[in-house]
Amino acid sequence: MGSVTQQIIQQFVNGISLGSIYALIALGYTMVYGIIKLINFAHGDVMMVGAYVGWFATTVLHLSFLPALLLAMVACAVLGMLIERIAYKPLRNATRIAALITAIGVSLFLEYGGMLVVTADIRTYPPVFPDTMYSIGGITFKYGDIVMIVTSVVLMLLLNFIVQYTKAGKAMRAVSFDKDAALLMGINVNNTISITFAIGSALAAAAGVLTGVYFNTIDPLMGIIPGLKAFVAAVLGGIGIIPGAMVGGLVLGMTEAFVSGLGWSTWRDAVAFLILILVLIIKPSGLFGKNMREKV
Amino acid sequence: MLLKTENLSISFGGLKAVSNLNIEINAGELVGLIGPNGAGKTTVFNLLTGVYAPTEGQMLFEGKSIVGLKPFQVTNRGIARTFQNIRLFGDMTVAENVKIAYHQHATYTTASAILRLPAFYRGEAEMEKEAAELLRIFHLESKAGELAKNLPYGEQRRLEIARALAAKPKLLLLDEPAAGMNPQETQELMKLIRWIREHFHLTILLIEHDMSLVMGVCERIYVLDYGTTIAHGNPEEIKSNPKVIEAYLGEEVV
Amino acid sequence: MGNLINRRNIVALLGIVLIYALVQGLIVTEIMPPFFKLTIILITIYIILSTSLNLITGITGQFSVGHAGFMAIGAYLSAIFTAKLHYPLVLGLIVGAVVAAIAGFLVGLPTLRLRGDYLAIATLGLGEIVRIIFLNTEYVGGASGFTLASKITWSWAYWLMVISVLVIKNFTNSTHGRACIAIRDNEIAAEAMGVNTTKYKVLAFTIGAFFGGLAGGIYANYMYIIQPMTFNFITSFNILVMVVLGGMGSLTGSILGAIVMQVINAALAGFPEWRMVITALLLVVMMIFRPTGLMGTKEFSLNFLRKKGESNAA
Prior knowledge:
The complex is a heterotrimer.
Chain A: H1 3-36, H2 43-59, H3 65-88, H4 96-118, E1 123-124, E2 133-136, E3 139-142, H5 143-165, H6 167-177, H7 179-184, H8 189-215, E4 217-218, H9 224-237, H10 242-261, H11 268-282
Antiparallel strand pairs in A: 1-4, 2-3
Helix pairs in contact in A: 1-5, 1-8, 1-9, 1-10, 2-3, 2-4, 2-8, 2-9, 3-8, 5-6, 5-8, 6-8, 9-10, 9-11, 10-11
Chain B: E1 3-12, E2 15-21, E3 24-25, E4 30-34, H1 41-48, E5 56-61, E6 64-65, H2 71-77, E7 79-81, H3 94-102, H4 110-115, H5 118-137, H6 153-166, E8 171-175, H7 183-199, E9 203-207, H8 211-217, E10 220-225, E11 228-233, H9 235-239, H10 242-247
Parallel strand pairs in B: 4-9, 4-10, 7-8, 8-9
Antiparallel strand pairs in B: 1-2, 1-3, 1-5, 5-6, 10-11
Helix pairs in contact in B: 3-5, 3-6, 5-6, 7-8
Chain C: H1 7-28, H2 34-59, H3 67-84, H4 89-108, H5 116-135, E1 146-147, H6 154-172, H7 175-185, H8 187-192, H9 197-220, E2 225-226, H10 233-246, H11 251-267, H12 272-289
Antiparallel strand pairs in C: 1-2
Helix pairs in contact in C: 1-6, 2-6, 2-9, 2-10, 2-11, 3-4, 3-5, 3-9, 4-9, 6-9, 7-9, 10-11
């Protein structure tokens, strides 16, 4: 296989791994926005907490990958629900600016509160996976790549199942569509919102653990940039639209991998923001979104 | 001919909300636009004021096309409107609400404002005077310093009309001005509408569901249903028109 | 000119001069400790930043979370002119402010159609892009930034602040300011009443960016060193907090907000994490219990000194 083609496909593979992390985080953003029209700025930091719980599980409790993952997901599900109840629920009828500012406040609280609790030191994950590399036609896959992709796919399929085929999922879709009508139809809106936060946060936790396992180091501020980028991914796909978040995440991951591959890695973050601006200017409703008119 | 539309149409996706609308209004007339809910009446207003762009057809105001103009440009040309659901500036005072409409006729620049040049003081004094006069006409002068959102409903509706008049329009579009009013308030509104037409030398096109107002005040009426005109004439003709009665099936046409 | 001479303005002028003289006296006689001087000058810089952001976000209703970007442009451009090209301070400050204003104009135009959350995120992204551009530019030192002489004194900072606030106040209390407020309150109605909403949104961004850039220039020429990481999203957010804390739409509120936040910062300077945690908690609590901020949309006014019949305008 030609060396250029090889390079491209290699970046493709790197991009999918990265993209699946963004997708997992983006799903949480998109679900929360869909249901209460709030950009949950604190979401990236929930991912960070998940990474730390995973670290604790593997380093102190000596659990293996799957139990650690589950523990992190459960812990963050609870965290997500707590945040919603304490900080967001009182502001459900407030102005968007107030809600957004509160979300940023929660985010900062998690970041710097985290620093006070675990100190700003970087922690490293113990080696959870064997170091094996596989090579197909000159393209390397790490064991970690495969786990990351498989885990993400499984989780996304699970999410899809929940949203499409369970009662809770139907409730989530109803509340996203029209909160008041759902309330009138007897749906417990508060619980549905809590479940949405729980699921979204669990997915973010999974992303955190995968990041920790794959990239090895974690620190209290690790959630900021991936959080922002995952948000870009959600907007790219169409905010509020679940398949959109998955596609957006993958597209963003691959774009970033290519930019790095071309040697412009210091501009990596700028590229994500540039994509954001372009989407907002050209088609704010994203790839899968519909345009909504304001009634005059 | 002050206002003329030719085959005016607009489609939203597959739905033709207004199709082939042909209306003519002469200067000084008081014309009504009625029809069942969803007939497209407010859409017509939105087309005329540039909020929506038509998919087909022409709109001529004083002989010149107003298609493609932005709403503020339409207002600058001399068409002002009120809204079906009141759109006052709630956090601004009554006086400030009126002064906004004078903004397009403002006589001082940003620079004058920043440097507090004499032109600023002259301009402000003039706007203050004109706003006070308008509020007096509408019996709102005592509420000049009140926040608009604190006014009772009836006064809010009056303020909405006063504000539209501050824009010094030649054509005034009133969207359901009597909504939520009791019969006595409606009677007063009718007097007010006739009076402002005289006093301000206006032409008025109004949308209304209250038939007593429409029949009592309008000289000519267009009836809209499913986006097209189904009848046109003076109140007597409209009252007895079978197509109109059918469109309003079940409603009392007084 | 006669309109400007009234009791209120005279009292206000006296107050302004008094504050200047008091602080200047303390500085010149070296009674004031350096840390206090730093804090006070930072307060003036942040007052310019908060009032200019208020013009964009509080008064015109355009949610902008990228103000640090304008500050960065003003800081770097003015620093280049004064430190690298050796032009006088005045020119450097003007250039910084003007280029920032141009950036504001360029930001205002394409983001016009965006509302609320989307505009916030877009401005956040643009602010970050500006920072990353400076981060990757070797001429200005990249990540480590560059150092320059400190030419800004209390006099410079204070009087520039007074001028900035006065300009913004005069703009707001005029038909042009009212047009902006109308846009915030009900954009569709504003447009229907003849206000060119595009023009005023862009104008608000341009003027707000101008003063953001001016503040950046003052900052750069005071602080001895400028680095990209100073102008990140956290800074933008801090400025926004000052505006929200004071009350969006209230210039007095923004001034108060800047003072309060900087005092908290100074008091907790030794404990940066605690500072952020407390700020964050303060914010969340305030949003839940008093989202309108300290002043709401009201201004502190000396109207009680007004003679009967005198207009509000001056």
